Amino acid sequence: MRRIAPLLLLLLVACAPRATEPQTNTAIIQGPVGFYPSQPGLDWVYLPPRASIGDPPVRLSVIGPTTFEGQPAIRYRLSGRGLERSYYRQVDASGVRLLGMEDFDRLQVTRYTPPIQEYPPQANLVVGARWGGQTREVIELRAGNNVTRVSDRVLDYTYSVLGKSNVTVPAGSFEVFRIAWEIRDPRNPNLRESFELWFFPGVGEIFSSVNFSDQGGLSLVDRNFK
Asked: Is residue 76's pLDDT more than 80?
């Protein structure tokens, strides 16, 4: 099967200009952080399942409110193991939406119009739920005043909650929602990409096969909130 997502959400580790390791945040945030955590200062630490605990981690951090291409957003920073990426999301009663991403110190910018609905409203996240849509993905390289459009295409996507399972990762044991995410090129139904997510309310993604898929994805090792 041909792959359609190299320009979408897969890491471009081989092209990274440097190996940036995440800063350590030792502050512990106490108290509830919401069904879909988005509070500034939250940190999650991940490793590929086959990595050793002492290996360099990948850290996801909530930087805080900002704007992305003129829209209000919350910036999430994913860094480590040669990666430096910012995700721009909106989190509210209607769920979680991905507006776009920036890679390589904002050299590469990806926009989704309309935003990708990553998660539904809280009450709608149940076993058997399905959601999705169609989005236009535009990827540009920006260097100073020079803008080069790398890709401009339409993608269909679908999320499906397959079930709930008790899983154990280095961060502990959780009863997660197992979610399948499929991306398709409507011009050629044979071109598609599939990913798996494990989500636990109030904590976030326990496992994701989106990034570092060649190493088995990323599993949660630690977090700075209880």
From this structure: yes
